[in-house]
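User: I'm curious whether this sequence folds into something compact or stays loose and floppy. Could you predict its structure so I can see for myself?
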Amino acid sequence: MEKSLVIIPTFDEKENIEGIIRAVFELKAEFDVLVVDDNSPDGTASIVKTLQKEFDKLHLMEREGKAGLGTAYIAGFHFALDHGYEYIFEMDADFSHNPQDLVRLRTACENGADLSIGSRYISGVNVVNWPMDRVLMSYCASIYVQFITGIPIKDTTAGFKCYTRKVLETIGPNNVHFVGYAFQIEMKFLAWKYGFNITEVPIIFTDRTKGQSKMSRGIFKEAVFGVIQMKVKSLFKKYIPAQ
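Assistant: Here's the prediction. I'll summarize afterward.
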């Protein structure tokens, strides 16, 4: 079995972190976990350190401050590439992503996908406990990204994904420019431009019940203008598909 790493960025997730870690390690399939913590004031990292005594496949990366979702994942990508992982996952700590779907995402990549996306919109709108304005904002954002970029993905802003190693090696983590919400869009866009096989796997997204959401309208604003910038830059760059 090729090694798999689940990257979980955290900031003030003490109410969720132990539960999500245990849920991953309780799966019949084998996954390693890397928590990238941005110096959470609530002691999230301390909980992870305690759990490391129980789980030898649990890793912790502590950063000095809150530096953005994108940079947390990029740090995790470097760790994954340096340690020989074949399948690298992005997953939230708050149970909005069902850990059991990790198996389905990996299976999609084992069956030929280079990037599998846990999609809320590939089979209708599968979102639970979100207010209607949040659902509309997210859904319309995906349509907007599709329109501007031409990318054939229904859930362009999804944050639950499985990359094969060659996708990250080809893109190069340091070549990703956005650090907030637009990071998720940029990674899919680059994977598509490099010609990788992308599959959307239907999931049910359930909003957090514990802790505070990190989403804001400012993050969406970054995505709106970032997509235009990303598209314009792509017109002057040649993307050579990986062999």
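Summary: The helical segments are 17-25, 44-52, 69-82, 101-110, 132-149, 165-171, 182-193, 217-234. The CA atoms of residues 118 and 201 lie 5 Å apart.
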